[in-house]
Amino acid sequence: MAENYDVIIIGSGPGGYVTAVRSAQLGFKTAIVEREHLGGICLNWGCIPTKALLRSAEIMHYSDHLEDYGLKLEGGKISADTSAVVDRSRKVSLRLNGGVAFLMKKNKVDVIWGEAKLSKPGEIVVSKTAKKPMEPQPPVPKGVKGEGTYTAKHIILATGARPRALPGIEPDGKLIWTYFEAMVPKEMPKSLLVMGSGAIGIEFASFYRTMGADVTVVELLPAVMPVEDAEVSKFAQKQFEKQGMKIILEAKVTKVEKGVNSVTAHVEMKDGKVEKITADRMISAVGVQGNIEGLGLEALGVKTDRGCVVVDGHGKTNVPGIYAIGDVAGPPMLAHKAEHEGVVCIEKIANFPGVHAIDKLKIPGCTYCNPQVASVGLTEAKAKAEGKDIRVGRFQFAANGKAIALGEDQGFIKTIFDKKTGQLLGAHMVGAEVTELIQGFVVAMNLETTEEELMHTIFPHPTLSEMMKESVLDAYGRALNA
Ligand SMILES: Cc1cc2nc3c(=O)[nH]c(=O)nc-3n(C[C@H](O)[C@H](O)[C@H](O)COP(=O)(O)OP(=O)(O)OC[C@H]3O[C@@H](n4cnc5c(N)ncnc54)[C@H](O)[C@@H]3O)c2cc1C
């Protein structure tokens, strides 16, 4: 007979495993199904291992600037041991993967190992996991359940996403990489072409450039990181170019010829001319698409749109008892969105008091390139397009004591306010450690803070965060250090 649960979650990424923990806390008998790796893309092939690689790149960057800090390296230049850099990143992932196994055990969540498919309302069939191409895989945790039929009143899809491929330019894992292969290079390519300048593309471009590769980025739209505020994109682009990255905007890769150990991309420029660019490797970073296939969604009539499951603000699909959260439930495809959406979904199922539908405008976005980029809320262009009368403040890193002391005086913080109400509509940052700073404005926006409250807040000195206040002051012509 099928084993019965209150809640079954399919997929153990940040969305799935966090939902499982909260589900168990709320008293539900909970199981989570995973076919590949506890912790999903985020812990194994996404957020975390990239940050470990980027940390190596950051240290490399500082070592190239030791003299700026009055330091010297006797006996030559620092060099990277690629396999050791990758090994460190994999170990970081493995540690966190083990952490998820621990959390499942601690919260008495049953882990079911295998590929899940919805067989009928309230029922899934778990079959043997198809072999996955990426090695090495973390070990299958001990004590997991396996193939079989399982039932639950509530089934939450948290199956995540995978790399999108352009027809004719499909990644082959050897010369044309996705983020999987880019995460575990056997050796550093001397030259690299990155197709797409969203967060994933630009983080890898930044990593490989700092590690010494000649990097060219081809972007279809008129700006790098096109979702960011135009000023931030422009500033970041200049910094990347100063570091020696080549950036080609409003251009598209139309065709790729593969050599023995190189690729030649045909790049159609803005003026229609085609330029051939040869590089050792190419990364295809043209976005991700939801894992909706093979789940039995069509048979049950679960609505999907452009590769994602359609949900309301609490993760409910159009079919009672079936929910979706995280990347599979649509953009923004970010780990913290997945986690929050999962908690909102399960708390709503439990009728937990005070649950709010997710407000996508208040989801921060961070890119860990050099310089870092972070933002929340409306860009200036979007605020104007919405017809808002706005005030804009800016503050430069070059005028902040801590930034200068750190040797990180390039960047700025921009804030956008509603002129009438003083409500903070958006904040945009580029520069050192801004991915840690943005949360201050996320809290402020969540509390519907106005400029006055921010001006009355005391920020510690000397910190980079002082620039947040100065940016607010600047929006009202009151900046003190500019
Ligand atoms: C290179 C890279 C860098 C990134 N960096 C960041 C970052 O810095 N910050 C950030 O917020 N986001 C980042 N992301 C995005 C982030 O990884 C995703 O938004 C996040 O992992 C989504 O979580 P999820 O739980 O929805 O799905 P996933 O993490 O994708 O997990 C889904 C899980 O479901 C499993 N699964 C799928 N189908 C089935 C099935 N039928 N049966 C059983 N199991 C199944 C999969 O094996 C997987 O483990 C990055 C992504 C990449 C690729």
How are the secondary structure elements laid out?
Layout: E1 3-10, H1 14-25, E2 30-34, H2 40-45, H3 47-63, H4 82-106, E3 110-113, E4 115-120, E5 123-127, E6 148-157, E7 161-163, E8 176-177, H5 179-183, E9 191-195, H6 199-210, E10 214-218, H7 230-242, E11 246-248, E12 252-258, E13 263-268, E14 274-279, E15 281-284, E16 288-290, H8 297-300, E17 304-305, E18 308-309, E19 322-324, H9 335-349, E20 365-367, E21 373-377, H10 380-385, E22 390-396, H11 401-406, E23 412-418, E24 424-430, H12 434-446, H13 451-455, H14 466-475
Helix pairs in contact: 1-9, 3-4, 3-6
Briefly summarize what is shown.
The protein is α/β, with parallel strands linked by helices and 482 residues long. The protein has 14 helices and 24 strands.
Structure description:
- This protein folds into three domains: 3-162 and 289-349, 3-Layer(bba) Sandwich (FAD/NAD(P)-binding domain); 176-286, FAD/NAD(P)-binding domain (3-Layer(bba) Sandwich); 371-475, FAD/NAD-linked reductase, C-terminal dimerisation domain (Enolase-like, domain 1), CATH 3.30.390.
- Strand 13 (263-268) and strand 14 (274-279) form a beta hairpin.
- The strands form six sheets. Strands 1, 2, 3, 4, 5, 6 and 19 form a seven-stranded mixed sheet that branches.
- It is α/β, with parallel strands linked by helices.
- Helix 1 packs parallel to helix 9.
- The chain contains 14 helices and 24 strands.
- The structure holds flavin-adenine dinucleotide.
- Flavin-adenine dinucleotide (FAD) binds at residues 10-16, 33-37, 40-42, 46-47, 50, 115-116, 158-161, 179, 200, 291, 295, 326-327, 333-336, 338, 368.
